Amino acid sequence: MSRHRLVGGYAFRHFAGQPQPTIEDFGLPERVVITIPRGTSPAPEVLVRRGAHVRAGQLIAEVLGADRRCIISPISGTVAETGPQGPDGRDVTIASDGSPACPPLEGVIKDWRTEPRERLEDLLYAAGVAGMPTRLTTAAVGPEDVRHVVLNVVAAEVYDPSVAVLLDGRRDHLAQAIGILRALYPRSALHFAFDQRSGRLLDPVREALSGESIGWHRLPARYPQQMEALLHDAISEHPRAPGASALEAGTLVLDLQKAFAVRDAVADGLPAVSRIVALCGPGFARRPHLRLRVGTPLAEVTRRFLRQDGPYRIVEDSLLRGRTLDGEGGAVGPSCSALIAVPELAFEFLGFARPGLHSDSYSRTFATSFLPLAKSADTNLHGEPRPCIGCGFCESVCPEGLMPHLLHRYVQRDFVDETLVRFGIQRCLDCNLCSYVCTSKIDVAALLRTGRRRLAAEGLLGPARAAGASA
Amino acid sequence: MKAPSISERVARIRILRPFVGILQTVEGIVLGSRELTPGAPHILDHIEMKRYMAVVILALAPSTVAAVVFFGLHALAMIAVSYVAGGIVEVAFALIRRKEIEEGFFVTGLIFPLVLPPTTPLWVVAVGVVFGVFFGKEVFGGTGRNIFNPALVGRLFVTIAFPAMMSSSWQLPFTDAVSTATPLALFKAGQDMPPLRDLLLGMAPGSMGETFRVGVIAGGLLLIATRVANWRVPVTYLATVALGSLVASRLSPAVAPPLVQLATGGLLFGSLFMATDPVTSPLTRGGKYVFGVCCGLVTLLIRTRSGYTEGVMFSIVFMNAFVPLIDHFVLAAKYPRAKK
């Protein structure tokens, strides 16, 4: 039973290049690259010098300010280099010493059930688990303000890691994670958000937890239902202020990996040094799920798995919202769940006239609308930019019910004033669906972001949204 | 680094620079786009303007083929002249603006001759389409900025400039014979009309595209099914005409009953292909309903109360002028100003 049904949205189905339901141990990388983010306070100090030996799980920097957290070393080895402070942060490179051991955290506890909440919070913090409101973080809300905790198992992206692979053999751990979350947030309600497919995989968990009061919400697997703000809208009776994030509205959203990281930190004292990353997209020759250390250089992954008939673009997590990763210099980030390789296709002979046996489209003008054929993904624009004709596709898919075709015209013509606020521009979630479906190939979402930025600069947006718009 | 495209190479030669837009158009058609997404979203929908317009032309194909079959080579000549004459205006503006040729013209160039009587002289077709494209679209700033449907602007112009030619010689299909009255005119004069089956299959005189009504309906359904045309406008337009004439025909025998209204004149063609033009119909969903209803009412009014037998083209152009106002009120209702 969902409180607010998703309007608009778009279901990405049948895309070829889904990750295989297997998991492989990538092993230790030769070196790892950790980015110490800038944060909002004075730049965090790196606590280890070049040449110092670090253990896996050892603290190497502490990011202060909002979203305060620990940055820990994912491997044992020697600090090879601490890069200069850049606009995003600084990189620390650690060369592996080949030892896979990962000692438990200091202060590991025997039975978390008997410990006070503060000890659990300390462990989480020391393990490097970020984004959880505790007494130690100064995140958007404090732990007392968390009203709902949602475990997100909705798979609505173009490519998603396999829930079956993530859950494999860890159903008990999931139940433990629920217990730990209850201990951390005793006053909040717990929920599972799942779709039709993952719901079946969660049935044993649901049975095991049948005595507990947990909300079970079946939601449509339609992008962008899995976005935190929309999960909040679906499960919470508290309305979210326009433009506010889920956390600001009192809902904490965790995905499965985060829940397991919480459980591992508290129940076993394991620092968050490794992740399961799904390889997706037509650019990878094989697409297993990889268990690898945070900070593994992308070059090591691409060397082993990327096809050689490139060029391919590597995107983190979401083809609609994720950032491009540098295949040579980039590394696996601490919250990365999927690496997606899509071809950078520079031309398609008579592209517009083809029957479209592999072309995805919101309009039903391609064969894929009528036949369940495998769809291809590539970074081609598939058309030339044209003026807006008011086809209305963007309005039909907008999950907030906005009118992007109207709003972007105002921004284009420089009419940036309260009218845009009246039309709800601050409710935009940045899901980028409007840009995806645009027939005229206009980057509508970018124009809406520009509009919000200008409104924030003029002080016309509310305080909550202004903080997000300036980011 | 990408190898420079043909149009990029041509752009380096100064004297050829104005033609780059045209070259890019051809390149885009044959080779598809060379551009990649700059960032998120990293993949894009495969729909594009060329395909969008190609679907509209596909939907117009049954009417076009029927027009050529019914009315012979002159119909083909009219279509060719329309594309060439209108195309000259389009290309001229593309050159002046240094942009690619906008695809919307490929639909306008086909729709315009389809709303003309099959006996229209070719020079009238040329004059009409040039007027329509120029004053109906280009002076407003080109595609996406026009208020009025360009094909209808051209049609209005030739109707008012050459009234006799436009209303009194209607060719019967498969013959060279010319009659002076369309079924609607016959009804207005109180005379017998052709049976429904003839009306649907195109055995009755009318403008080139409207006669093969089965094809028009099929094409219209294709447009709605592919989401290229929004269903709200044609459904409310036709429903209003049907309901309005149902009520009015009971009150006065001078008003044709619903089935006659729907099956005669350019109503089906106009509501499915012209009122649905996304640029000239309202942006808001509520506005689309209002637009459809008002078009229906004005059509009925013109058909019953005015000297013209056919009201569709006038009513659509008339309502096009009100579209910004309709949108304004719908937006004001949907997003009320905060009370201070």
Describe it:
- The complex is a heterodimer of chains A (471) and B (340).
- Chain A has 13 helices and 16 strands.
- By secondary structure, chain A is an alpha/beta fold.
- The longest helix of chain A has 14 residues, at 171-184.
- The two termini of chain A are 34 Å apart.
- Chain B is an all-alpha fold and 340 residues long.
- Chain B has a two-stranded antiparallel sheet with strand order 1-2.
- In chain B, α3 packs antiparallel against α11 (213-225), α7 (150-161) runs antiparallel to α16 and α12 (232-251) packs parallel to α15 (285-305).
- Chain B is globular and about 70 Å long.
- The N and C termini of chain B lie far apart (56 Å).
- The model of chain B has no long low-confidence stretch (mean pLDDT 88).
- Chains A and B meet through α11 of A and α2 and α3 of B.
List the helices and strands and how they pair.
The complex is a heterodimer of chains A (471) and B (340).
Chain A (H helix, E strand, L loop, with lengths): L22 E3 L5 E7 L15 E2 L4 E5 L5 E4 L4 E6 L6 E8 L20 H10 L21 E6 L9 H5 L3 H14 L4 E6 L1 H13 L5 E5 L9 H8 L15 E5 H13 L5 E7 L8 E5 L4 H8 L6 E5 L7 E2 L12 E6 L49 H5 L6 H9 L5 H5 L10 H5 L6 H14 L5 H7 L2
Parallel strand pairs in A: 1-13, 8-9, 8-11, 9-10, 12-16
Antiparallel strand pairs in A: 2-7, 3-6, 4-5, 6-7, 12-13, 14-15, 14-16
Chain B lengths: L5 H6 L8 H12 L17 H23 L1 H25 L6 H11 L7 H15 L13 H12 L1 H5 L2 E2 L6 E2 L3 H6 L7 H6 L11 H13 L6 H20 L6 H6 L3 H8 L10 H21 L6 H23 L6
Antiparallel strand pairs in B: 1-2
Helix pairs in contact in B: 3-4, 3-5, 3-11, 4-5, 4-6, 5-6, 5-7, 6-7, 7-16, 11-14, 12-14, 12-15, 15-16
